[in-house]
Automatic annotation (TrEMBL), chain A:
<protein>
    <submittedName>
        <fullName>3-hydroxyacyl-ACP dehydratase</fullName>
    </submittedName>
</protein>
<dbReference type="InterPro" id="IPR047678">
    <property type="entry name" value="YjiM-like"/>
</dbReference>
<comment type="similarity">
    <text>Belongs to the FldB/FldC dehydratase alpha/beta subunit family.</text>
</comment>
<dbReference type="InterPro" id="IPR010327">
    <property type="entry name" value="FldB/FldC_alpha/beta"/>
</dbReference>
<dbReference type="Pfam" id="PF06050">
    <property type="entry name" value="HGD-D"/>
</dbReference>
From TrEMBL, chain B:
<keyword id="KW-0479">Metal-binding</keyword>
<keyword id="KW-0411">Iron-sulfur</keyword>
<protein>
    <submittedName>
        <fullName>Hydrogenase</fullName>
    </submittedName>
</protein>
<dbReference type="Pfam" id="PF01869">
    <property type="entry name" value="BcrAD_BadFG"/>
</dbReference>
<dbReference type="InterPro" id="IPR043129">
    <property type="entry name" value="ATPase_NBD"/>
</dbReference>
<dbReference type="GO" id="GO:0051536">
    <property type="term" value="F:iron-sulfur cluster binding"/>
</dbReference>
<keyword id="KW-0408">Iron</keyword>
<dbReference type="InterPro" id="IPR002731">
    <property type="entry name" value="ATPase_BadF"/>
</dbReference>
<feature type="domain" description="ATPase BadF/BadG/BcrA/BcrD type">
    <location>
        <begin position="4"/>
        <end position="245"/>
    </location>
</feature>
Amino acid sequence: MGVHEHRSLLKDIGVDVERHAKMMEMGLESYKNQFMTQKNRPEAMKYFDWFMSEIQGQRIAEINELRKKKRPSIGAFCIFVPEEIIVGAGGACFGLCGGSPATIADAETELPRNICPLIKSAHGFKLQKTCAYTQSSDFIYGETTCEAKKKTWEILNKHHPVKVMNIPHMKREKDLKLWKEELVEFKEHIESITGEKLSLEEMKKGTKIVNEKREALQRLDRLRSMNKDIIPISGKDGLFVTQMGFLDDPVRYTQKVNELCDELEKRVENKISVFEEDTPRLIVLGTPFAPPNWKLHTAVETSGGAIINEESCIGHRYYKDNVNLDEVTTEDELMQKLLDKYSAVDCACFTPNAPRIDKILKMYKDRQADGVIYYTLSFCHTYNVEAHLVTQALEKEGIACLVIESDYSPEDAGQIKTRVEAFLESINFKKKATSFKKKQN
Amino acid sequence: MYWGVDVGSTYTKICAINKNKEIIDTKIIPTIVNQDEIVKEYLKDKQIEMLVSTGYGRHMIEECFSCPIISEIKAHAKAAFHFDNSADMVIDLGGQDSKVIKLDLNGGFIDFKMNDKCAAGTGKFLEIAASRMGLELEKFSKIGFEATKELSISSMCAVFAESEVISLIAKKESAANICYAVHESIASRLASMAKKFAIKSDNIIFSGGGALNPFLLQLLSKKLEKNVVAAKYPQLMGAIGSALAGYEVSNEI
Ligand code: SF4
Ligand code: SF4
């Protein structure tokens, strides 16, 4: 597999190659076990399997080619980073590793135990120097969405340049004004890396590329979730494809996702589903699933349930809105459109955040789902607290909901499976009863 | 009619309730092979609005009737709530296993504990001990009241406990005293499982075949310092709970 060919590059960018090789081996092994063994996978998943094998190889080489040409290379942990601007400058914007339990012990030498595993895992990757993406980034783009992140940036900055964007926590006029200023400042920062002025055309081009990526993901979402009886791809594969959208070259990725969608479209026509008839259809809400965090999807899909989409940031929240480029003729107009898109993100860091609840209820209806799993990372206070309001709204509508709070350690995998099984059992109970009653009458 | 079928390891229990949640039909038959056919035969001419199955053999009924199923824990919780909505615990002593279910006060359950695979804390152990003494189970459960000594059995394993019983017999302990010891050991196990939960209410419901044993009931009450009451239909609780679940879902859909 690819990583070995790229040893010298990895070494050059400061990766701890021995440790890195071990981590990759573990990652690929677990990918093989959890993904390659699934039955009836779409042919087009081959590309993504290949991408996984090259995830810290060829893609890293590509990114470093860009860097040689002084194109910006920016790592992030949040969907608030305006990747349209980075792509417009010919650079690469990517999500950094933050979903593995293997780096957490290292992180805890500098960070407290009781903050979310995403932040700890990510920080640990930097300390261990085992994420080639982190090592390839000109800087890490941080934001002020939650306390854990905001403070961690100050510590992470000792090890790697971090630039922080001030994301307001309310969406009043004055907050949005600040946010727009932040976007402009971001653009200027990108220009300071390339040493060139970024033109409106370039930014529009970048925006178009990212819009197309989001459209492809919306298409994938529709194919996964909008056909009542046919689910043409497993939730796990759907999640993985989405996760890779934060790493791959956007143009190539869009093309590959569309190829996958073409195949899924045919599957829907030919009524090919990867799940048995009547498999409970679940939507997952909540915090992002940084790879290789596949724990919940694996638990659900080995217990007789299907995940038809994710409301999470590695999911619907990321691709639901596009930037409207119609009639944009000035830079200021473009910035406004970008702001319109980003301020429509319904992250739990905002107060109030009612649009999120409305979206979830609509999503449930549109997709004819059978239940909802509210997934949050431990110590993610925003999503954990918001769970109360969301589950209350779901309950009012009579929607079955299971709340799962977990971190990346494998220890609770069994317990999660038991709870998921009980949840599925209760959903099945109603489904079965409905068809039994029909038969009797 | 809303039917519940609880396929246990020894007996299959069938129960029907009407729109007013009144029990209108019950049946207890030994579990043998082709149990589904026997249940089918019994239900042949009955009016069935909904049928829900529980118990270790529930999947067999599910396949046969294509009906919904629920876990025994849920079934017991529902039935217990139906008869006494202030109780927050069910102790169930069956033939092959025993469990303690912590209830919430809405008819659901919070958590439960079960004995491990061993027979020591189950009805089976009572049967073994009674037959060792050459007594009918019913008689065996009553003579404990006449015990004059508080003997105890220390072994945690049914096989060794049985040999302890034998050695008590050899020591010429009275049947009543031995009976006390056997019951004491089962009550201790159940009580220690129950004590893992905080028990808020004063009432605890005792179900399963074990609840037919008045001496055990008394010992348990003493150990837990609570009012342990036998369920109204101890052996039928699982079936009743299933029928109730069927009634509820039927009204929902
Ligand atoms: S949940 Fe909020 S803070 Fe986290 S990645 Fe999404 S938008 Fe960013
Ligand atoms: S998951 Fe929650 S706690 Fe963790 S970084 Fe994101 S917002 Fe912060």
